[in-house]
Write a structure and sequence with these properties.
This protein has about 160 residues and is mainly α. It has one domain (about 15-90, about 105-160). About 50% of the residues lie in helices and about 5% in strands. The protein has helices at about 20-35, 45-60, 70-85, 110-125, 140-155, and strands at about 40, 160. A two-stranded antiparallel sheet has the order 1-2. α2 (about 45-60) packs parallel to α4 (about 110-125), α2 packs antiparallel against α5 and α3 packs across α5. It is globular and about 45 Å long.
Length: about 160
Amino acid sequence: MSLINTSKVQRRKLWFHSIEELLQELDRIEAAEKSGSVKALGNWTPGQILSHVSAWIEYGWDGYPIGAPPFFIKWLLKLMVRRQLRKGMPAGIKIPGIEGGTKGQELIPTDVAIARLRKALQRLQNGELAVHNSPAFGPMSHEDRILFNLRHAELHLSFLQLN
């Protein structure tokens, strides 16, 4: 099976101002899943997409499965983070040297992945502070961590078509 170039996929436009808005989107995804009308437009299943978003939230508490990039790359990424918080994340970016280009996209049922993401968002919403710094961006305020995870969710959930 050949992989889809996800930077070329026509996908939904999403922008979340709060965790509450993201939770409302999860309600829509769950309803579409129950009616059999959710379709993934990229290379992952809906469960993989939701699992991936959950995992990257959880890594702030549980530890990241990847190390920091070289200093120069990390410096560039720290410069880019502000732009991504304001404008969103681009599709099709892969972490060099990581099989599949990223981590956390376990193949799990959609309903299980939705419950996992709700739990992670609840912890974030309740103010549970990260104990591990991002390997790419270093320390982040809790507010920036929320924004970053909202932007990350927008990117990946935009690949879910709800009919």
